[in-house]
């Protein structure tokens, strides 16, 4: 069988092919890595810029920042304690969803506790005591946040929330006054790293919110988040 | 003008609670009073609150006693707005139907 005889020519050919393949694989690996990194960087642009640092006071009078929410998913609603009916309805819905999510996930799941958060857009009347009283009516883990006019305004700006409460120096908003605050009525889902995921409105039922949050938690637990960002960007 | 502002502020039901927002129970009492008053308006075919003359005075009194003035203004405005939206939707539907018939 003369075809199988090892000649120097064949040896050189084999070495060259091997080196070529090695070089090619290495190059391809680098290229894919670079592409992935580029996609990741782009993905952060594709995500709506909602959320970020804030400095508020919780319903026990303690300082509360965005860092207190990290490690869990959070549902964040902006409203005011003198709100006629939309705020309490939405907060009830949020509490219902938070309880349903907790029930649906096994006790071993580290993400089964979603933080329900109420942020006041009426700092002139919503003192810590007022917010403390208010949160008692809703989910037992509901966190109520308030602050000065400026800190509330800054948090609303970061979350792209509109509200009409006048600044206190304009004299209209003060405790004991009877007025309403016009404001955005979405609540936001933030992921365990404090990044915005999605928003829910009046038309979403508690069940819909529950299902969508559960989907997000499942994705996160599977580690599919980075992949999701990648495909999100390439589709656009 | 002082007498006007003082007269207005003394008529605000929320002032009697010292600026404390209503809790769940108080909200429910207010919503029930509102629903009873609106049901009375419906019964008398009155859309705009205040145009019923004295037909619902008992219900109106309970509504005013149990809801803050700002809430009453909001609920009353919403009642009229919602009715107008219903009318507009009906009109649009009718127009769409007419257009379909003509074609």
From TrEMBL, chain A:
<feature type="disulfide bond" description="Redox-active">
    <location>
        <begin position="83"/>
        <end position="87"/>
    </location>
</feature>
<keyword id="KW-0812">Transmembrane</keyword>
<feature type="binding site">
    <location>
        <position position="87"/>
    </location>
    <ligand>
        <name>Cu cation</name>
    </ligand>
</feature>
<dbReference type="InterPro" id="IPR036249">
    <property type="entry name" value="Thioredoxin-like_sf"/>
</dbReference>
<protein>
    <recommendedName>
        <fullName>Thioredoxin domain-containing protein</fullName>
    </recommendedName>
</protein>
<dbReference type="GO" id="GO:0005507">
    <property type="term" value="F:copper ion binding"/>
</dbReference>
<keyword id="KW-1133">Transmembrane helix</keyword>
<dbReference type="GO" id="GO:0016531">
    <property type="term" value="F:copper chaperone activity"/>
</dbReference>
<feature type="transmembrane region" description="Helical">
    <location>
        <begin position="6"/>
        <end position="25"/>
    </location>
</feature>
<feature type="binding site">
    <location>
        <position position="183"/>
    </location>
    <ligand>
        <name>Cu cation</name>
    </ligand>
</feature>
<keyword id="KW-0999">Mitochondrion inner membrane</keyword>
<feature type="binding site">
    <location>
        <position position="83"/>
    </location>
    <ligand>
        <name>Cu cation</name>
    </ligand>
</feature>
<dbReference type="Pfam" id="PF02630">
    <property type="entry name" value="SCO1-SenC"/>
</dbReference>
<comment type="similarity">
    <text>Belongs to the SCO1/2 family.</text>
</comment>
<dbReference type="InterPro" id="IPR017276">
    <property type="entry name" value="Synth_of_cyt-c-oxidase_Sco1/2"/>
</dbReference>
<keyword id="KW-0496">Mitochondrion</keyword>
<keyword id="KW-0472">Membrane</keyword>
<dbReference type="GO" id="GO:0005743">
    <property type="term" value="C:mitochondrial inner membrane"/>
</dbReference>
<keyword id="KW-0186">Copper</keyword>
<dbReference type="InterPro" id="IPR013766">
    <property type="entry name" value="Thioredoxin_domain"/>
</dbReference>
<dbReference type="GO" id="GO:0006878">
    <property type="term" value="P:intracellular copper ion homeostasis"/>
</dbReference>
<keyword id="KW-0479">Metal-binding</keyword>
From TrEMBL, chain B:
<dbReference type="GO" id="GO:0005739">
    <property type="term" value="C:mitochondrion"/>
</dbReference>
<protein>
    <recommendedName>
        <fullName>Cytochrome c oxidase assembly factor 6</fullName>
    </recommendedName>
</protein>
<keyword id="KW-0496">Mitochondrion</keyword>
<dbReference type="InterPro" id="IPR048280">
    <property type="entry name" value="COX6B-like"/>
</dbReference>
<feature type="region of interest" description="Disordered">
    <location>
        <begin position="1"/>
        <end position="25"/>
    </location>
</feature>
<comment type="similarity">
    <text>Belongs to the cytochrome c oxidase subunit 6B family.</text>
</comment>
<keyword id="KW-1015">Disulfide bond</keyword>
<dbReference type="Pfam" id="PF02297">
    <property type="entry name" value="COX6B"/>
</dbReference>
<feature type="compositionally biased region" description="Low complexity">
    <location>
        <begin position="1"/>
        <end position="17"/>
    </location>
</feature>
<dbReference type="InterPro" id="IPR048281">
    <property type="entry name" value="COA6_fun"/>
</dbReference>
<dbReference type="InterPro" id="IPR036549">
    <property type="entry name" value="CX6/COA6-like_sf"/>
</dbReference>
